[in-house]
Amino acid sequence: MAKWGLSTWLVFVRLLQVLAAIVSAGLNGFLLVYIHVNRLGLSQAMSTLEIMTCVVLIYTAIVLLVQHTGRRRIKAPTNVVATFVVGDVIFTGLMIGVITILARTGVPSNCQGLTTSESDDAPNKAPKGYNTIGFGDGSSDKKGMLDKWCALERGYYFISVAVIFSYMVTVTLSILRICEGLYTKNTEVDQQLISASELQQLKLKPSKDSSRRYSPVLRARGGGFSSPSPVTEGVSSPRSTTSRQSTGQSFRHQARRPTLPVSPLTSPTITIDPAREGLLIQQQQHTVVVEEDPAEAAAVADGFRPQQLNQAADAPPSYTPGSSYRPGESSSCMVGHARESNEMRLSEYVKGETRAQDLKDRGGL
């Protein structure tokens, strides 16, 4: 059998109390009715005992129905249990009063006090061998006709004593149940507070993903981390590494602005307005850093646009006077010389012009 809890024991004891009250009321009630009907000298004590027993029965039944059967519908079960604890104490005193009355009538030794001689008693006299039509004192000198029913009142007496002890048990169990309810409630509150504290700590704990998401360090190719390139290096140096997207947008901005003719004897300069510089900074912070083709960077430094570079790459090589073809070298214009400085390109250009002028003078052309 599984271990019983406090509620199970309380139900069991309440059932015993109800059963004891029913039996007590039945024993005393049967004898009361018998004496009253036969007019054998009913005393006031028996009527008082019957009323008190019926009150105990009603109270025990109410406690059983309210506290145990309907406890799920009770909003404050602890208060109800405390109320019934007070009720059990009161009815314990009531049962002590029942025992006191029974003791005054002579129970359990005899039942002489339960009947009395009244003027309206039965006129018939006691038969031979009996001294009275009611209860005797238990001696041979005074025997009563109702002595054979005194066992009922003795049973009523011992049942009343058992009911008193049962009320003591219910008071103890009810107090333990109140303590258990308070302990359980406090435990649940503590658990809720602990859960709320842990949740608050999780909310306050910094997230590693969020710190990585907002980190200024950018992930470059190859899995390593590299900081963004300085703005000045990315703008002024022709070999700086910038993204293709930012370069394309800068080309579109240059295409919208009017271009000035570039003299072959002067080096082109690049002017950057503040708005465009801020746009380049923002694009460098949100784009992945990739390497740029040196030839394309050199073409950008010379002032050419990507469209011109593509057209120059697709067009057939043009003939330059005084230049000889060498395998592996391009014979196009001097646009694609990424590794030569402006002075070297200017020297080659002047030499070619000088050679062409000499040929004209000699009549070779």
Automatic annotation (TrEMBL):
Residues 337-365 have a biased composition (Basic and acidic residues). Keywords: Membrane, Transmembrane, Transmembrane helix. Residues 205-270, 310-365 are annotated as: Disordered. The chain crosses the membrane at residues 44-66, 78-103, 155-176. Residues 236-250, 258-270 have a biased composition (Low complexity). This is MARVEL domain-containing protein. It comes from Pseudomassariella vexata. The lineage of its organism: Eukaryota, Fungi, Dikarya, Ascomycota, Pezizomycotina.
